[in-house]
Structure formats: C-alpha cells, structure tokens
Amino acid sequence: MTSATVDRSEFRHVLLSGTIVGAATAVAVILFLLVSRLLPAGLGTSVLLMIIVLAGGVGAAFLPGFFAASRTTQGVASAAAMGLWGTIVFMAIDIILLRPLRAYPWTWDAVGGGSTWWYLPIWWMLGTLLAWMGAIVTAGRAARGGDPSIRALAIPAIGGGLGVGLGLGLGGLLFMPVAAGAGFAGTLVIFALIVLARRG
C-alpha cells in the first residue's frame, strides 16, 4: 500500500466517510427499534438485538479506520474525526426522522429528566472513542504485518461482546444487548491499550 492510500485525512473524505458511518449507525438503530417493537420479549429477541448491537459496534469502531487506512497518528486522528462526524450525522437523522415518529420509549427521555437532548454529548464521545480505539487497533495490526481487514479486527471485540452479553444476560444481571455493547467496547479498549503499550 502506497503512502497515497494510507492515513487519509482530506476534509472531504473525512466528511463523506463519517456520513457513511452515521448512516450505517442509523440503520442499526432502526433495525433495533423494529425488532424490539415487532417481536415478543424473550431469549430469541434478546439474542437478535445483541447481534444488531454488535454489528453496529463493528461499523462504528472499524469503518472509520478502514476509510482512513489508519497506519500512523494522522490516520488515527482522521478516523476519530470520522467517528465524531458520524455521530453528528446520526443526530440529524434522529432529530429529523426518529424523534417525530416517537421511535423511543418514554423511559429514554425520562433518564434525562424529560429532556430529549441528554444523550447527545454521551453519543458524541462514545462514537469518537470507538472510532479512535478501532483505528489504533487497525494501525497496530498493520504495523505487525497482520491482516487489517474489518473482519479480522472485529473478531476479538465481537467475542468479548458475546461473552459478556451472554454471561450477564443469561444471568439476569443486565439486559443482554446492553451487556454485549459494554463487552464489545471494553474489549476494544483493552486491545487498543495493548497496541499503545507495545509501541511505548
């Protein structure tokens, strides 16, 4: 791979790629809402929702690093910017489409004391963090001569998400999709810290 095809940070490319990430996130959220409303509560539905959460996590975490071809600090920063822009694109879709359709249960806004805006700063930070960590893992894998494809990079994080999701979900300690998302993010952060420790 030539220097022209790695660490892409052109402004237009960052915005276009971030828009794709935001749209993919919106698709995952809409699928989650449809499944949760149309299917009866139960183990099968929880597993399906968990799979949707993990698929959305893979997109949010590894698509930016893929689009940026992250190999150095510049590419990692570009991927983080794509992740942030993706959250803003999703926010627009949320406000224009999902909110008017009353897509979320009333308890979602109740968490923020009735506010419809409470989750946005958290969403911006989470989307940027996942893209940042994913890009670090991408760059670290490429530096070691490994396979930097999304499929190869996502396997450990998906494994962590499945393990935590099934463990806590079947144990009745946490809603399975929520546990899977936490397990995915936690595993991703651990692998990113390992990459940074090796480089340090």
Please write the string of helix (H) and strand (E) elements: HHHHHHH
Please tell me the overall pLDDT: 93
Helix percentage range: over 70%
Low-confidence stretches: none
The largest sheet, given as strand count, sense and whether it forms a barrel, is:
none
Topology, number of strands = 0
Number of domains: 1
In whole angstroms, the N-to-C terminal distance is: 25 Å
Shape, per Cα inertia axes = globular
Task: Name the structural class.
Answer: mainly alpha
**Number of helices in the DSSP assignment:** 7
What does the radius of gyration come to?
A: 17 Å
Description:
The chain has 200 residues and is mainly α. The chain has one domain (3-199). It has 7 helices and no strands. The longest helix has 28 residues, at 11-38. The mean pLDDT is 93.
Summarize the structure.
The chain has 200 residues and is mainly α. It has helices at residues 11-38, 43-68, 73-98, 106-110, 120-143, 150-170, 176-199. Helix 1 (11-38) runs antiparallel to helix 2.
What are the SSEs and their pairings?
Elements: H1 11-38, H2 43-68, H3 73-98, H4 106-110, H5 120-143, H6 150-170, H7 176-199
Essential attributes:
200 residues; mainly alpha
